[in-house]
């Protein structure tokens, strides 16, 4: 799904821009260049040695005890059984997960049996930030519904695009194992790899977007938030609905337009929810392009088969409302069970439950960082848009699996 994205979550690995000629982000690697060329990005795997392994205290996963998981005994684990089996459909490809996943399939979807199963076969690992703290940010995302059409018209004037032909994507993990799941995105300028076009440069008359419109939608603000969420559904004029999902991203870092509005004094921090941003955008149509272009990230989509289940996340399995989260895969193994202790949107009411790390997103960076998937529709959107809570996380790993192995 890749947001938040992206969205994304964006959706789903760390999305990096090419950095030929000038740095883009402080952590973006550069494309290979001539030996005499200076390194313009830091760190740079081409012209600098890989970083030293983190100390034990700085590792994101620290040993924990089951008694530390606040709310573990109260959660109805049976509600997470389907999401667990979905993760296992992918995790069983790894020998260390195979036995535990085979046992999971034999378990009834009943809380007491699953609690006994986890406590017998798994160990909890507290997720920690580099400074040793264990509290972080939990946000929410959802699958929106937009009105649209397959053809442009007066009522549907804003395009949702597929992947341009000139977008270059390089899997850096194939060259540098320490950059596993990181990708470089750019375009060719002669024989050089340069950053891909930013959102401000990807205007409707851009030649690279010619013929790439998949759908045309009614509302440009909702279209922007579709890019942030990473997937959604479009209701066509005849009432049929189609599903679209993340296909690629332009490689530029995600920037929060809500934060920009706060910095400009246009909104107070507590007003910078999705709903607050949408209200400001509709009240200031002349400044819409200025607002949206403060986020240079741009998401391209693909049409997906429609179905009753959730949209596919970065793991490749359908997301389960209320039981799937997006994480930073550098700290939390994709697919793993995670016990999340947070609060409901805009309140102190506890939200403590077993979830599955089945997605990633461009805005989901850091160890104790999660994006909670609320599901489809307006109510899910209301909850997701208001969620900005503090939370703690524990990753559950099979007893024979060490964190360093799980994060390879």
Provide a quick synopsis of the model:
With 408 residues, this protein is of the alpha+beta class. The protein contains nine helices and 18 strands.
Question: How would you portray this structure in words?
Answer:
The chain is of the alpha+beta class. It has a single domain (15-31, 41-48, 80-255, 295-406), classed as RlpA-like domain (Barwin-like endoglucanases, Beta Barrel), CATH 2.40.40. It is 19% helix and 26% strand. Strands 4-17-14-16-15-18 form a six-stranded mixed β-barrel. α1 (81-91) packs antiparallel against α2 (95-105). The longest helix has 11 residues, at 81-91. The radius of gyration is 21 Å and the shape is globular.
Uncertain segments of ≥5 residues (pLDDT<50)? Answer: 3-53
* CATH architectural label: Beta Barrel
- How far apart lie the N and C ends? 22 Å
The coarse silhouette is globular
Return the CATH topology: Barwin-like endoglucanases
| E-strand count | 18
The total number of structural domains is 1
> DSSP strand (E) fraction?
25-35%
Rg value: 21 Å
Provide keyphrases for this structure.
single chain; 408 residues; Barwin-like endoglucanases; six-stranded mixed barrel; 9 helices; 18 strands; disordered N terminus
Spell out the blueprint of helices and strands.
Layout: E1 15-17, E2 61-63, H1 81-91, H2 95-105, H3 111-121, E3 122-127, E4 136-143, E5 145-149, E6 158-161, E7 168-171, E8 183-189, E9 192-194, E10 213-217, H4 220-229, E11 231-235, E12 241-249, H5 257-263, H6 274-283, H7 288-292, E13 299-304, E14 324-326, E15 337-343, E16 350-359, E17 369-376, H8 378-386, E18 388-398, H9 403-406
Parallel strand pairs: 1-8, 4-17, 5-11, 14-16
Antiparallel strand pairs: 2-3, 3-18, 4-18, 5-10, 6-10, 7-8, 8-9, 11-12, 12-13, 14-17, 15-16, 15-18
Helix pairs in contact: 1-2
